[in-house]
Every structure is written in structure tokens, then in C-alpha cells.
Amino acid sequence: MVQLSPAPVPTRKDESRSHRGPIGSRMFWAVLLGLALVLAARIWLIAPVVVASDSMEPTMGEGGVALLLKPGPDPGKVSAGTVVVFPHPEDGSTTVKRVVATGGQSVEIRDALLFVDGQEVAEPFVDHSRIDGTWFGPAEVPQGHVFVMGDNRGVSVDSRHFGTVPAEDLEAAVLLPPWK
């Protein structure tokens, strides 16, 4: 009995790829796509900001770099506790503060403690002993606006000084806390 084996298939070197150089490689295109995605995210989604003052300590110290999620939060869905970035109402500089109340709510500070709609708000990030004896309000937040404050209430220039901020002016929300 004679056994037949299949004829060997001739292998052909793919010469069309060998002369392309690095542009033809999949690795090149993967790296290029990755860089494009990082650049797009940097332009439209994520941006760094340097914290310019100590008004957000201890959450964010002066000179720290925070990552922002752009575009800003949906004006109709921004909530208390969100740390946001907006142009300062008086000079247009980039300002980082925490939203403490939204449209339709009342804000008051009684002996350093924050009250929203008459209820005390727990704020573990605020050192109340440094601002003991501080009083403010009550103040009503207009619809479509937010009331912002720095975590370092004793030195922060915020809505207590310049008033509420239109929610549509919020440019970004802080994604990651800063690092030095």
C-alpha cells in the first residue's frame, strides 16, 4: 500500500510588509492611536489645574495639581459636595471651590457649622476649630445657581463674598485630588 502525503505548501515571505518600515507595523499604529486618544482626552475630557491658594486646604493645598473632568457638570445635575472650577466672578481667574448648595436651597453658617435648608451638613474636610465664631446668612440660592465655599473657610473668598455662581459657568469638576 502506498501512502500519499499532502504536498508541502510553499511558503512565501510577505514582501509587501517587509519594505514598509515602521509605518506598516501594527505597533506603530497602536502607539499612534494611543497618543491620539490621550491628546483627545487632554483637550476635551481631562485637564490639570494648579491650585493657586490655600482656600481649599486640607483637601487641596496651594501648589497642588488636580485633574479636572471637562466639560463641567450638567448645570441641572450639579450636587452639593462636588469640587468645581469656574472663572472668578470678579477677575475671571480660575477658581476651585466646593458646591455646598444648589438652586432653591438656603445656606447658613452658625458658629462655623454649615446648615443647608436648616439641616446641619457633615463636613469632615473642614477644620471647624479654625473658624469657630463664624456666622453667615441665611441666604437663598437662586435657581440655576450654586453656592460655593472653600474648605479652608477662614481664608476662602467664596460665595459669601461674591455671591452665587451660575451653574452654567462651571467649567469642570475635580476628578482627582491634587498632588505636589
UniProtKB/TrEMBL annotation:
Under CDD domains, the record lists: S26_SPase_I
Q: Where does it live in the cell?
A: Cell membrane; Membrane
**What is the topology of this protein in the membrane according to its UniProt annotation?**
Single-pass type II membrane protein
Which residues fall in a coiled-coil region? none
Bilayer-crossing regions: 27-47
Give the family this protein belongs to, as stated in its UniProt record.
Answer: Belongs to the peptidase S26 family.
Name of protein: Signal peptidase I
**Native source species:** Kocuria aegyptia
